[in-house]
């Protein structure tokens, strides 16, 4: 069985570097061309005085800077997020216990997969080639109609150059759609092997090969606003009808944009109520920086732990996971106490809710678990002592030795209550670990850690210059690793006074 897996995995692994190189070149060329174009049009539209200089310079440095940022984020995903997920998969047991491989159905699945590729790939390619000219003409017709009527992308003057560029580049979009259809044909064809193995039936795999053609045909008809339905039959390929995609709805719903053209009443000058997608991450790292400075001064976390977190060592888990989880818990607790329907940020004014949150599907994966977690914290009706105990437990649960040696306060007397709090800690740690795998997280986290160290070095330098007494006091506070204490508002006021003294 392992030999069969190696044979099947070898071709995708061999093609993967080629696809990555080609995709990187095409994406780099597209971004390198479109980035300065967007910057030039933006410079003209903003009414700057020296438009010629801004047309030359604007967009060039931003394109270079964001290209380097993209490379950095991609490196973090490849070297940190990927290995973090694989480590979790390696340590976790399968959901249903041991995985039993039905060896007798493996050859059947391979044969069905090859048949699916031999049928679906050429047929879907032919369908895409036949519908490609219709897509080209229909797209041009819609763009020219919007151009004459000043609708859609031609509604605002600043968008006219981009809309004209869209007319010129529309054939490339059609070619890209045809290539994507060919790739979809390969995937749909080989997926027949999965269906045949899961259903333990050669007949079900053959039914899926035919149904895949119908699924693609109906989907492409809906995208192109063509008559509904398909000339291909859609046989039943699942014994359990609920697992079969599209079993209850005959076609994919058409996008609203094909039915209702954009209204001329909307304008880019109208205020937007949506928040930026990364506003929650920005607030989280600002809170991490503030809390990190406070905890280092108190001796709750050490500079060595910060260095270990930067290098990715396990001993730095208190900083890399514990500190963001602690700040996230404080944010959710503050939102729960304020009876906020969303998430209340640290300024106690900005709120992320269902009305102003970004509408991206990716953001739902990020925000919805936090909203559920906030409701769970609110349902617990935590007392002040329980909230303080839970915050310390969230902070230190990643380091068992430090948690054992630290005084985090008395746990709840009820075993059921302790189990509930432990479950909240595990969920918070899991959510934070999942968030830490998102792009841009690692870069922002290291920037916050660097800011904490620079602030501490600045304070150390100021105190050494002010006198030996202040230096010794700071040295005792900086080096003494005391246990957790209850942080009161007076202690935070002392920290604010220290910051004001440093500024003076």
UniProtKB/TrEMBL annotation:
Keywords: Membrane, Transmembrane, Transmembrane helix. This is Steroid nuclear receptor ligand-binding. InterPro entries: At3g27390-like (IPR040229). The keyword Transmembrane helix applies. Coiled coil: none annotated. The chain crosses the membrane at residues 104-130, 178-197. Residues 469-489 have a biased composition (Polar residues). It comes from Ambrosia artemisiifolia (Common ragweed). Residues 243-265, 460-504 are annotated as: Disordered. The keyword Membrane applies. It comes from the Eukaryota.
């Amino acid at each position: 069985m392992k030999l069969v897996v190696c044979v099947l995995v070898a071709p995708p692994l061999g093609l993967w570097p080629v696809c990555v190189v080609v995709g990187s070149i095409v994406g780099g060329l597209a971004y390198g061309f479109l980035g300065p174009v967007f910057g030039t049009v933006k410079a003209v539209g903003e009414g700057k005085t020296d438009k010629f200089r801004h047309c030359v310079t604007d967009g060039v440095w931003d394109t270079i800077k964001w290209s380097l940022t993209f490379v950095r984020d991609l490196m973090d995903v490849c070297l940190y997020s990927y290995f973090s997920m694989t480590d979790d998969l390696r340590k976790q047991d399968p959901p249903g216990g041991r995985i039993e491989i039905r060896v007798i159905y493996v050859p059947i699945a391979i044969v069905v997969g090859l048949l699916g590729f031999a049928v679906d790939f050429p047929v879907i390619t032919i369908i895409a080639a036949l519908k490609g000219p219709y897509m080209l003409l229909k797209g041009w017709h819609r763009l020219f109609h919007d151009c004459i009527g000043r609708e859609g992308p031609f509604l605002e003057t600043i968008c006219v150059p981009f809309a004209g560029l869209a007319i010129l580049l529309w054939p490339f979009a059609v070619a890209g759609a045809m290539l994507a259809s060919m790739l979809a044909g390969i995937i749909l064809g080989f997926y027949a092997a999965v269906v045949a193995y899961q259903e333990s039936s050669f007949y079900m795999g053959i039914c899926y090969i035919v149904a895949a053609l119908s699924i693609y045909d109906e989907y492409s008809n809906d995208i192109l606003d063509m008559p509904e339905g398909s000339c291909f039959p859609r046989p039943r390929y699942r014994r359990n009808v609920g697992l079969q995609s599209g079993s209850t709805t005959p076609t994919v719903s058409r996008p609203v944009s094909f039915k209702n053209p954009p209204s001329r009443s909307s304008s880019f000058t109208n205020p937007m109520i949506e928040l930026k997608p990364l506003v929650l991450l920005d607030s989280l790292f600002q809170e991490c920086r503030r809390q990190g400075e406070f905890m280092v001064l108190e001796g709750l976390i050490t500079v060595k732990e910060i260095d270990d977190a930067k290098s990715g060592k396990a001993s730095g888990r208190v900083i890399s996971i514990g500190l963001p989880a602690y700040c996230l818990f404080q944010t959710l607790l503050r939102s729960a106490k304020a009876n906020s329907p969303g998430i209340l940020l640290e300024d106690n004014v900005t709120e992320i809710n269902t009305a102003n949150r970004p509408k991206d599907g990716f953001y739902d994966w990020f925000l919805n678990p936090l909203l559920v977690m906030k409701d769970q914290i609110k349902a617990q009706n935590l007392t002040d002592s329980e909230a303080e105990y839970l915050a310390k437990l969230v902070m230190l649960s990643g380091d068992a030795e430090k948690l054992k040696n630290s005084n985090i306060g008395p746990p709840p007397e009820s075993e059921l209550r302790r189990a509930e709090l432990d479950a909240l800690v595990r969920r918070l740690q899991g959510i934070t670990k999942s968030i830490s795998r998102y792009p841009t997280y690692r870069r922002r986290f290291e920037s916050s850690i660097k800011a904490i160290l620079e602030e501490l070095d600045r304070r150390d330098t100021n105190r050494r210059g002010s006198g030996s007494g202040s230096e010794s006091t700071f040295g005792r506070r900086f080096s003494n690793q005391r246990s957790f204490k209850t942080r009161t508002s007076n202690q935070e006021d002392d920290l604010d006074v220290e910051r004001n003294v440093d500024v003076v």
